[in-house]
Amino acid sequence: MKNKGILFVAIDLNRPLLDQGPFDVVLHKLLGKDWCGTIEDYRKENPEVAILDPPDAIEHLLNRQSMLNDVTDLNLSDCHGKLPLVAKPLVVDGTAKSHELFLAYDQFSLSELEPPLVLQEFVNHGGVLFKIYIVGEAIKVVRRFSLPNVTKQEVSKVEGVFRFPRVSSAAASADDADLDPSVAELPPPPLLEKLARELRHRLGLRLFNVDMIREHGTKDVFYVIDINYFPGYGKMPDYEHVFTDFLLSLMRSKDKNRAAQ
Ligand SMILES: Nc1ncnc2c1ncn2[C@@H]1O[C@H](COP(=O)(O)OP(=O)(O)OP(=O)(O)O)[C@@H](O)[C@H]1O
Ligand SMILES: [Mg+2]
Predict the structure, then answer these.
(1) Ranges for the Inositol 1,3,4-trisphosphate 5/6-kinase ATP-grasp domain (predicted)?
(2) For atom 26 of ligand 1, which residue has the closest CA?
(3) Which of 11, 64, 100, 226 is deepest in the core (most CB within 10 A)?
(4) What's the mean pLDDT in 169-173?
(5) Which DSSP state fits 255?
């Protein structure tokens, strides 16, 4: 590990112990471990080791408000503020509770929910979500089934708030499904490239994913609803090659920097 000079930093909030294997430092926050401090100490003791993504930048994504600030700062769109609303727990700490989601059909029923929460407009998107995986310079997109559209009739008749347990982990891949082409069409590559480039830079991270939806009935109105650090890359097509290329290019640039010194 030390010889290779690469430290692979992965957040696995479900694993109970801080476990430093050769290619994997598992960061743990739930048990109150000071994982940022652990990485910082490790870095000081092993200055030759590259930390792929800095812990403070990773922490930025564990709060649903700060995670999307950089997307807002890109000033790509304006908001409308209509019902229904999606309410999500502010802090993402890996627990099932932090991935619960509520759909509120009227503003008054929001008082039934336990703060702190982040509120988002529910955007109809034809029941399909785009998961955009970013690994350094590489971008891969997959389609996944998502929450179905809410009809105007429902909005006018339904009241109250509805709870959904973790939606996305239950969602199946929609890549091979027989979908309406206007729903299935992937976001345009130039948009994805720009978003990935900007977010890599603004977040200071190389390994994350962006959940994006297309407003139903439009061709090019997209929303970023979630950003996750080190998502389940097992669902990303061709992940072995993408990761190998990423690690090799890091080693090459490290060697080049060393040679230039
Ligand atoms: N603003 C929104 N409009 C429409 N649907 C939404 C919105 N926000 C979330 N959803 C739906 O809820 C699902 C879960 O939302 P989100 O990705 O924010 O939660 P999560 O629990 O953090 O998921 P992840 O497993 O990606 O960490 C999405 O996949 C999508 O189906
Ligand atoms: Mg998500």
Answers:
(1) 78-248
(2) 168
(3) 11
(4) 74
(5) H
Q: What is the ipTM of this complex?
A: 0.97
User: In 3D, which of 62, 201, 80 has the Cα closest to residue 118?
Assistant: 62
- Residues 104 and 168 both lie in one domain: yes
Q: Which of 208, 219, 241 is nearest to 67 (CA)?
A: 208
Q: State which residues form the domain around 7.
A: 1-52
Same domain, 160 and 92: yes
Which atom of ligand 1 is found nearest the CA of 100?
A: 21
Predicted local distance difference test score (pLDDT) of residue 50: 73
CA distance readout (Å), 226 to 27, 108, 118 = 21, 25, 11
**How many folded domains does the chain comprise?**
2
The closest of 85, 87, 124 to 102, measured between CA atoms, is 87
Q: The pTM is what?
A: 0.86
Cβ(207)–Cβ(134) below 8 Å: yes
In the numeric block, which tokens belong to residue 99? Answer: 């991935």
Inter-residue contact 88 to 118 (CB < 8 Å): yes
Side chain identity at residue 117, one-letter code: L
How crowded is residue 80: how many other Cβ atoms within 10 Å of its Cβ? 7
In a domain, 42, yes or no: yes
Q: Do 192 and 79 belong together in one domain?
A: yes
Residue 76, pLDDT > 90, answer no
The alpha carbon of 102 and the centre of ligand 1 are apart by a number of angstroms equal to 10
List the residue whose alpha carbon is closest to atom 23 of ligand 1. 168
DSSP strand pairing (101-104 vs 161-164): antiparallel
Assess whether the C-beta atom of 228 lies below 6 angstroms from ligand 1. yes
| Arithmetic mean of pLDDT over the chain | 82
